[in-house]
Amino acid sequence: MEHYSPTFKALGMTFDIPVMLMSVLASILVLILVTISTRNMTTGVPRGMQNFFEWVIDFVRGIAGQFMDAKTGTKFVTLGITLFLYIFISNQMGVLANFNVTYTEPNPSLGITQEVINQHGHAVTHDGHTVKEVTVSWFKSPTASPSVTFGLALMVLLYAHYLGIKKSPGKYVKHWFEPSPAMFILHVMEEFIIKPLTLPLRLFGNIFAGEVLIAFLLAGSAAAVSIPLVIWLGYSVFVGSIQAYIFTTLTLVYISQKVVDDH
């Protein structure tokens, strides 16, 4: 079954309304989680959510410590925590709740016009009458959209280059020609083709494929798909966690390549 995603255009760009709403919701959930975890913090033995948040800090600090010294890595722990929590929560949103709404009547305020129903709707029978309805997946993982994953990757890669230029403009220019001038082409391919494609596509592909299979299983008979669906939901939670870890790790690796002299 085809799912339609309402959009609107502004400034020559197309905006996906469900993806925008889910991106904002994921940010709000991260803010709520951090607020709850850090209120009433104590210097004694941590308990409850404080214990969880301190584990997240140590986890991200441990990742950074693999590629940078402790002093340098501490500067990027906040970025790593933000990315890890945002991507982890975004990845799980479409797994834990997958709500679809069907429309048989136009609703222009939501981007559902008669033209959209005619073009993207499928025929169904209601009370003996055949009508067209369009299905909208309002609640889904924002990271199942390439616009979100490419946006995150672009932010990370531009920030890494900014840090490299800020640290030492001369060394930043020099590294493009090391260990020999012939490596310049390979460095350009790595920085402007390989990294900008592999970082977002890995996250998008894994989350999108998982949600497609969930939607496929939900459309089947409950008796036939119940067990496979439960197994796949559990596996999707695991995949979403791993992908958040991989994106955060690669972010810190790319930053370390620009701010650590050994690279």
TrEMBL record:
Record-linked Gene3D superfamilies: ATP synthase, F0 complex, subunit A
Major subcellular location class: membrane
Signal peptide: none
Entry membrane topology: Multi-pass membrane protein
Keyword Ion transport: yes
Cited CDD domains: ATP-synt_Fo_a_6
Name of protein: ATP synthase subunit a
Originating species: Aneurinibacillus soli
